[in-house]
Amino acid sequence: MNARTVSAGLGVSIVGFLLLVALTAGWIAPHDPFEQDLMKRMIPPAWMDGGSVEHLLGTDQLGRDYLSRLIYGARISLLIGTLTVVTSGLIGTALGVVGGYFGGRTDDIVMFVITCRLAIPLILVALTVVALIGSSLTVVVLTLGLLLWERFAVVARTTTMQVRNLDYVAAARAAGASTPHILLREILPNIMTHLVVVATLEMALAILLEAALSFLGLGVPPPLPSWGLMIAEGKDYMFFSPWVIVVPGVALFVLVFGINLLGDGLRDFLGVSQRR
Amino acid sequence: MKPVLEIENLRVGFADGTAAVRGVSLKVARGETHCLVGESGCGKSVTALSTMNLLARGARRSADVMRFHDYDLTSLSDRDMARLRGDKIAMIFQEPMTSLNPAYTIGSQMAEVLERHRRVSRAKGLERAADLLGRVGITAPGMRLAQYPHQLSGGLRQRVMIAMALMCEPELLIADEPTTALDVTVQAQILRLLQELQRELGLALLLITHDLGIVARMAQRVSVMYAGQVVESGSAEALFRAPTHPYTRGLLACVPIPGKTPRDQPLGSIPGVVPRIGPGFVGCAFRDRCAHAEPACGGTVPRRTVAADHDAVCTMVPA
Amino acid sequence: MLQFLLRRAVLALSVCLTVLVVAFALTRLSGDLAVSIAGPNATSEDVATIRKNYGLDRPLPVQFVDWAANAASGDLGRSYLYRAPVSGLIRERLPITLGLGLSGLTIALLTAIPLGILSAMREGTLLDRAIGLVALLGQAMPSFWLGLILVIWFGLKLQWLPISGVDTWQGYIMPGTVLAFSAIPALMRLTRAGMIEALSSDYIRTARAKGLSTASIVLKHALRNAAMPVVSVAAVQLGFMLGGSIVIETVFALHGVGYLAWESISKNDFPVVQAVVLLLAMIYIGLTLLADTMNAVLDPRLRAG
Ligand SMILES: Nc1ncnc2c1ncn2[C@@H]1O[C@H](COP(=O)(O)OP(=O)(O)O)[C@@H](O)[C@H]1O
Ligand SMILES: [Mg+2]
Description:
The complex is a heterotrimer. Chain B contains 10 helices and 13 strands. Chain B is an alpha/beta fold. By secondary structure, chain C is an all-alpha fold. Chain C contains 13 helices and no strands. Chain C is globular. The mean pLDDT of chain C is 86.
């Protein structure tokens, strides 16, 4: 077993484990993540002085069980990551495939749209949109989804250009297949592996961005247990109780690291050449 | 006279198990052109690169003797070898289009050789570079110095490579298929240039080629390589008079030699390809393609003397 | 070359114009801007006054053309919050953000390029893998969180560095490092890939045949050719870093443009938001142009073509 297999395996295990945690949150969380108990505020994790087994990872400033919030937080991160990637993947792939397949003026327009998107400051615009429309999970997903498509577009465009002139596409065209048929049946399946790799990268990015937005108070609204929001809420206490920010931060880090490992593993496994 | 370069029993293996060179021996004397000839993939470049200690990482090199003048190349440190390269031993390559750095001017790339080995100023280096560009037949050398490789044709670039190799007046020049990538007319010019320079400077020239026409024109000595071995070697005169190894004879049938090949005779070719040789291979590697193969070819075939200054590795040579 | 530059300039201008429209449209998303400005406790009379004072009662296209024309002449409007010209506010705070971005880029390049070179020279070894792993770890690090951890550790526990403000140059170290983290993985991978390609090229074989020193082969001959994509991406990354400074400036309480933007967003001070979006977009476009120019300097083939 070589190092690549090991790291890919680690990625699969991390993501698989957190996915399981997210799916079974209702059963495995020891407490209600929203239940406040002002008598039990800021209890440290079990292994520290003053900790108790009842709250393995302690409680937050409102006395809510930290482990339970962490477990439910995995749901939010993975949900937002997945939905964002689906949205942005659809937009980006559509743009990229169309630009790459038709070329010429169409492609110029696609390239222009991509350039414009890159010029627009991502976090700033996302924050503004959320501030104006009001924060909710849907708004965060849609905002990120509408902003994070450019890498899908770039990769879909270049790979489509490569596939476009291959024999079987030419054959399909000669056989009189309709353009939508060629795009969906001939081109798309052949660039899918590249898009899957991009999807992992973008998912990791979306999760980090959601956390950043929530941290700035313009992402997922409280009392939802987003990991970014947990860090923001713990910030005022971090000097005396660093674990309030260490715990959700490590969770975030491990998830994103796992997704990146998985992405690298997929890249090797699917034989997608690396170009970032 | 003591040879400038002397190699005995050179072996090179790669990490993937390929035995690219299997016991090559050769000598090059001052003022002599020694041609190393053979089909593509038979180990000529690897032989040249291992002499320069320029093999890729992961290659293993061993030799009983590998001597340049009094330097023992097998035991020389990387650092000392680097001091020898470009100074006393120079090399030019097959690919003039890609062998020059696209990011620097011709002058800069030439001058740095002298700066490195002679510790002279850039101005002195450029002066010598201009001299040499003139010497290799490039007009307006001053202008060329300020140009970049992409502004030059392939033939010009190979001239630049040759001039660059001469910056420190080397004693040994290794030329690995220097004309293969060039047009026929340019090819002839470059060969003439090499011939002139060699006579003038008394260079020891190890010229690698797959073209027996070039050998006939340039060589005093010839080593014919096949699958990592020198299968026949001798003076050019002896070898062309009495080619002995079936492989040499096959190669000769592939090229028209002026004055030797009748004009109306069709050119032959050797069927088959050079095999990849793994470790532990015994016998003649050519036997699968040879019309004269016999059971003895599967055993160890010794090197035998054909005539004075001419030997071959073949069972057909009488002991 | 001239035609190429002209095409690029036209493209840059059209991108600017598009961003202008986007920035304008963005702040009109909420529907009634006057209501947002007035705040929750305002009476309908207040809203009407605001609408009149800020010209929000005019048709949208008129508002846009008015704003765009003013922006083009350098007048970015007045901040509702500070009751001062936006351009002045930005001018005051831009140096901090630029300083932050540049220190981030410097740290990123000083880390990524040596690591990338080392990785390429030791391709496939344990060291190469270890460096790759570090890049992957860096990529997974939430920047705002890393900032907080550094503040706790170096600012409070060890007390080596100031936890906020940039009164001294030391103030730039922690936020610069955090910003650099996001750029290091991409820059490092690019340097590595470029160096591996360059090191296996024919001209490097020539350089070795000339007997040049390892330093000259790697740093002069190979790096120069591997540098071009790194330059392009470094410029883009600087643009992203400036955009990301909004998070970092909040963490480290640095009063730069990012902090200003965050304040304006949370307080509905839209002229400032519009202006910052526009500014960052223009900086980004400028940086990509700069990268093209630098590549032309690095690659003689581009210069001629
Ligand atoms: N870096 C390498 N790794 C593995 N095999 C190699 C390498 N370089 C050369 N070889 C093998 O060594 C043999 C001889 O190659 P070479 O010396 O380049 O032939 P030529 O006579 O055409 O110059 C070939 O079979 C080639 O595949
Ligand atoms: Mg060769």
